[in-house]
Amino acid sequence: MAGLAKMGVGQTLVLSGSTGCGKSELALALAERFNGEIVNADSVQLYKGHHIGAAAPEPKSMEKVPHHLYGVIPGNKSFDAKQYVELATQSVAGIRDRGRLPIVVGGSTLYLEALLHGLAELPAADEQLRGQLEKKKTAELFRDLEGLDPKRATELHPNDRVRILRSLEVSLLTGVPFSEQSSKRGPSPLSGNVLTIVPLWSRATLYERIDSRSRKMVQSGLIEETGALYQQFGEEWQCRGALGYQQTLAAILRDGEERIDREALVSEIAQFTRRYAKRQMTYWRNAPKKFAMDFEPKEAAQGVEQRGEERTDRGKPKEERKGFLAFHQSFEELVLAVLARFDSYDERQVENEGGNTRAVMFSTAEGLGLQ
Fold first, then answer.
1. Per residue in 314-341, pLDDT tens?
2. One-letter-per-residue 3-state SS of 28-57
3. At 188, is the secondary structure helix, strand, or coil?
4. Please, where are the H alpha helices in 118-177?
5. Which ranges in 222-346 belong to alpha helices (H)?
6. Domains plus CATH for the chain?
7. pLDDT digits (tens, 9 = 90+) for 243-270
8. What's the pLDDT tens digit per position in 120-161?
């Protein structure tokens, strides 16, 4: 395969998508196939000591291929997109220098947007305004954001206090909705050819996976991990509003660790996670148009079937919705499609055009054999 010799030289793979879609598993398989190293793009997995609730990669997986930016930030330290871009670009550059393929993995679209499409020029934090906003409950802040910037509100989970606060702060300081300002970005920090892959499940199957994962997290010690992190960091704990942790912490404070109704907690975590997964897929359905990305079916492996938005839930089999393309592929077909895309990359052409070639490919997770 000619493309194997080129991997890592001006190439980057990005794996994203909804929570529970098998990103980490697929990243590990592709890293082993393409001599790659994995770079985290999950905002919670960045923090030290966040294992169960963050669904961090298993130690045995991290032993197989090098992993970067997992468990590197103290739990009480705030962290923003600019800081992430600095660390991620350093990791990607180091991987490329070693002649290996960078594989960026995670569902934090704020970080991915900044890494792939540049940072927006936004005002610095205002201590007085931030202090006023901090006095409000998260639900109230989210309602305020829905009124000021409904577009931004659809992109955030209602419990994502950190990003809700920042979005409100920017909108109030400038008088312009955050979503309008964040769309005006600087140059991409990454050079070369970037291919984004999003594993796609039917909605029913994805929800089954989320339910199963929620149960496994509680059974594996999520309550104990949450209690320990809150005891260590208190109100300074940066991930107290993250999915899983937020619901578990509320149950601990209400009932105490020993008296928590575990079945009710599993159900609540799964419910909030399903809602979040739906928001994530809404983001990716709009991403091709939002960022003028494209991945033509003819560039994929021969015989790969182009399908619509979600193969089994709605839409005719070959219907396209909002620019959303899905390819039902086996793992080997996906490998061939990646090679074909990277083989067609011409670094001189990109340099002459003054930008990066971009592509998005959606692959059905069932076809990839993910468990």
1. 333 333 444 556 777 888 888 888 888 7
2. HHHHHHHCEEEEECCCCCCECCCCCCCCCC
3. coil
4. 127-134, 138-148, 150-155, 161-174
5. 222-233, 245-255, 262-290, 331-343
6. 2-119+185-368 (3.40.50.300), 127-182 (1.10.20.140)
7. 999 999 999 999 999 999 999 999 999 9
8. 777 777 888 988 998 898 889 999 999 999 988 887 778 778
